[in-house]
Amino acid sequence: MRLDKFLKVSRLIKRRPVAKEVADKGRIKINGKIAKSSSDVKFGDLIEIRFGNKIVEVSVLELKEFTRKEDADKMYKILSETRITAETEL
Predict the structure, then answer these.
(1) In the prediction, which pLDDT does 90 show?
(2) For a tag on the chain, would you pick the N or C end, based on fewer CB atoms within 10 A?
(3) Residue 22: helix, strand or coil by DSSP?
């Protein structure tokens, strides 16, 4: 499944164009490598997403084409959420 579609379906990012933009700016890594929006996501992959001043790391548990809002969080497991500051980036 494409990265941008996974992010939308799992509701980690609410809209697919936003997911594409974030990925194409180099703010998402899959298994430690910078990923494009068209990158393939597989079961067990580790995805790291940088949202402004926060980095969220998740593990992929399920791949579904469609999901209900209540079941979306079952597609991934949050491994860590880290707040970053200007000093942390350096």
Answers:
(1) 45
(2) C
(3) helix
> What contacts 24+ positions apart, CB below 8 Å, involve 60-66?
60/6, 63/1, 63/6, 64/9, 65/1, 65/9, 66/9
Residue whose token pair is 């942390």: 88
Evaluate whether 62 touches 43 at the Cβ level (below 8 Å).
yes
b/e per residue 19-40 (b: at least 16 CB within 10 A) = bbebbeeebbbbeeeebebebe
Taking the C-alpha atoms of residue 42 and residue 51, their distance in angstroms, rounded to an integer, is 22
User: What pTM value is reported for the model?
Assistant: 0.84
State which amino acid sits at residue 80.
S
Q: SS3 breakdown of the chain: % helix, strand, coil, rounded to 5?
A: 30, 30, 40
